[in-house]
Specification:
By secondary structure, the chain is an alpha+beta fold. It has helices spanning 78-93, 97-102, 155-162, 166-172, 194-197, 205-212, 222-241, 258-267, 324-327, 334-341, 352-370, 400-419, and strands spanning 46-47, 65-67, 70-74, 109-117, 120-128, 137-144, 174-183, 188-192, 245-247, 250-257, 289-290, 293-294, 299-304, 307-310, 380-385, 390-392. A 5-stranded antiparallel beta sheet has the order 1-2-3-5-4. It has a 5-stranded antiparallel beta sheet with strand order 8-7-6-10-15. The chain has a two-stranded antiparallel sheet with strand order 9-16. A hairpin with a 2-residue loop joins strand 4 (109-117) and strand 5 (120-128). Helix 7 (222-241) runs antiparallel to helix 12 (400-419). The radius of gyration is 22 Å and the shape is globular. The two termini are 43 Å apart.
Length: 421
């Protein structure tokens, strides 16, 4: 059976979208408007359409390149590129505990390759495509740390970096250079660029997160929030103890599949997770209860002021699908639901045309899923990326600059978790 052809969602453009932030300016990016469609690259490669942040080189955005199930990151600054290659090589070959744990938090590394770009052989870092199994990948780049310039930075570089994303970095120790989201309510893809990110502050960042999570007009999806927190907590626990690296201008990449979120919301007639808590989020609580069974996230379900309580390494548990109640009832899932709905007759009292449009979309999704070789149990993840400015830890100290940004981000997600009750 050949893979079904799905018409890509349009990129929405309008003058005002961001509810609750009347003065915020933002840009909506269309990849075809960057004059990148004429970039000369090999025929078996394409520009990576899910990139949401990057650097301009002499007015030309090289950007990431997609090749099979990998993405190629062109090296346009030799010193920075070499530093990032050395970082990946070091982590990839390491046997010590700190770097071994770090392997789980970064994209898989497949070495380097030279690619002819615009008639020049450009060395590229080959990494796994974190969106490869996602049908409608929603991606957010969050740059971590109040300080984004490294120890070798010139005075001009320091001044330039300090001027970027001032409000967000000052108050939250992180900033959002860009993100894209497939909006559930109108089936449109929207991209927000760095110009929008520069307008964000501690009051508007939470709303930006809600926009990314498809939660502008409804409570955030508990399953989605817990999946992100599961990854964020692990990175946080590692960052609290590691004294090997200091990261500058490094990012966390948040990725989830809007297709899976849409499926979950359509079938979710009962609460997926029940959050039980007393007056404060930081009191011990039962974090993720699904039909009286704790979801296997690698956490005990107890969240304290110091952070989540992890299960002991001696009793590892495999991550389980958060919406496994849907999987248990596959016989009563989208297929039967669609078949039953076929019995409807035309009625002017109901929005028949809209229902038929949704039905056709559902069948397209079903065919697409049938032709997919692999469907990941989890449909949201967080990875550490961008290590061009990764340096050995100064005097073997904890990277407080990086840690503070992660902890503030986690705090916002924990607040969203409470809001989703």
């Amino acid at each position: 059976m050949g893979k079904s052809e799905v018409v890509p969602m349009p990129i929405h453009k309008q003058d005002s979208l961001f509810a609750g932030c009347k003065t915020a300016a933002f840009s909506l990016l269309d990849p075809m408007e960057e004059n990148e469609e004429n970039l000369e690259i090999p025929a078996d490669m394409q520009l990576f359409e899910n990139q949401v942040a990057g650097h301009m080189i002499k007015g030309k955005q090289y950007g990431m390149i997609k090749h099979n199930d990998t993405v190629l990151k062109p090296i346009t600054k030799p010193k920075c590129g070499q530093r990032e290659i050395e970082f990946y090589e070091e982590v990839n070959q390491a046997t010590d505990k700190t770097r071994t744990e770090l392997k789980d938090f970064i994209p898989k590394y497949f070495g380097t390759v030279k690619v002819p770009i615009e008639g020049k052989n450009i060395e590229c870092i080959v990494l796994e495509d974190l969106t490869k199994h996602y049908k409608e990948p929603c991606v957010m780049d969050i740059k971590i740390g109040r300080r984004t310039w490294d120890p070798t930075a010139t005075y001009e570089k320091i001044v330039n970096e300090e001027a970027k994303y001032q409000d967000s970095k000052r108050d939250l120790a992180f900033c959002i250079p860009g993100f894209q989201v497939y909006q559930i309510y109108n089936n449109q893809l929207i991209k927000f660029d760095k110009n929008y990110g520069k307008t964000l502050n501690k009051e508007t960042v939470p709303q930006a997160l809600k926009t990314f999570l498809n939660a502008e007009t409804s409570p955030p999806c508990r399953s989605l929030i817990v999946q992100f927190l599961a990854s964020l907590w692990r990175i946080q626990m590692w960052a609290r103890k590691q004294r090997t690296y200091h990261f500058y201008s490094s990012s966390l990449l948040l990725v989830y599949d809007a297709r899976r979120l849409r499926e979950l919301l359509k079938t979710d007639t009962k609460p997926v997770l029940k959050l039980q808590r007393s007056t404060s989020l930081y009191r011990p609580l039962s974090l993720a209860v699904l039909y009286n069974e704790k979801i296997s996230t690698g956490f005990s379900g107890q969240l304290t002021k110091e952070g989540p309580i992890l299960r002991t390494p001696t009793s590892p548990t495999k991550l389980k699908q958060f919406d496994d109640y849907v999987a248990k009832n596959k016989s009563n899932n989208v297929w039967q639901k669609s078949i039953r709905s076929l019995k409807r007759t035309h009625s002017f009292q109901n929005d028949y045309d809209k229902d038929m449009q949704n039905k056709r979309q559902d069948y397209t999704f079903i065919l697409d899923e049938l032709c997919t070789e692999q469907k990941s149990e989890l449909w949201a993840t967080v990875k550490m990326i961008d290590f061009a400015h990764a340096f050995p830890a100064e005097r073997h100290q904890i990277d407080k600059n990086y840690l503070e940004g992660i902890e503030n981000l986690i705090r916002l997600f924990e607040e969203l978790l409470v809001e989703s009750e």
